[in-house]
Amino acid sequence: MARFRLEAGPTPLHHQVYLDLSSALDEGEWQPGDRLPPERELARRYGCSLIPVRRALDELAREGRLERTRGRGTFVLHPRLEVDLATSESFADLMHMHGMDPDTRLVDSSVEPAEDAVAAALALPPAAPIIYLERLRIADGNPLILEQVYLPGERFRGLLNHDLERNSLYNLLVEQFGARFVRAHETIEPILLRPHEARLLNNPPARLALLVEGTAFGPDGEPIEFTRSYIPGGRARLSFERKILRRQWSTGADGAGGDTHPPEGDT
């Protein structure tokens, strides 16, 4: 039996289905992780053919609310979080801003020899001792980000004696070890999750994710921290703001263009 009768008129049928499905998601009829009924069942629900249903589901998938996988079905995704890469807010503060309950689970902590890429990022000799921390950042009980942190072992000797789940790592580094962070360089690239990261993030292996690699520097340019953060596709949307520096042009009395202002940041 149809949930309600679709009406012929100026509003296309697929958009009517889209609006009702969107409302059902907002009302919690299906929760994140739930699989929606098959397309044919939804078509019976709305008393229409498969075409409006498919178009409505495709639109919700483009919005990041659903994931459609051939052979598995259509699943409800967790709401995407807006993560501003330029902000200095902590993970807990960001989650509170989104009305979510943050938590951190320490997966691993150890002192180990630095692999080549980590040693290079921290300007350390090959195989120098580093402190490795693997932490799962959780929002409302759901894994959101897997964070792998690498720190110079000699500089932060004794860090593992602190509570790294209930204390802010940033505050510990600043208040207990005198670290000063003045800038960070970050890169973002799409990857496929390996089994280890996929398991911790409750995702299937080879799922598309974003890898954010970042190095934080102190006031004299020395690298202090290197991190790898794994964010599964559909969980968050990354944003940043950049300043656009351009020449200011004005027209002189003779009508010719003249560069009357010195170019900002242009050498």
From TrEMBL:
Pfam families: GntR, UTRA. GO terms for biological process: negative regulation of DNA-templated transcription. InterPro entries: Bact_HTH_transcr_reg, Chorismate_lyase_/UTRA_dom_sf, Tscrpt_reg_HTH_GntR, UTRA, WH-like_DNA-bd_sf, WH_DNA-bd_sf. The keyword Aminoacyl-tRNA synthetase does not apply. PANTHER family: MANNOSYL-D-GLYCERATE TRANSPORT/METABOLISM SYSTEM REPRESSOR MNGR-RELATED, MANNOSYL-D-GLYCERATE TRANSPORT_METABOLISM SYSTEM REPRESSOR MNGR-RELATED. Gene3D superfamilies: Chorismate lyase-like, Winged helix-like DNA-binding domain superfamily/Winged helix DNA-binding domain. The keyword Acetylation does not apply. It comes from the Bacteria. It comes from Sinosporangium siamense. This is GntR family transcriptional regulator. One of its GO terms (molecular function) is DNA binding. Keywords: DNA-binding, Transcription, Transcription regulation. PROSITE patterns: HTH_GNTR. Residues 11-79 form the HTH gntR-type domain.
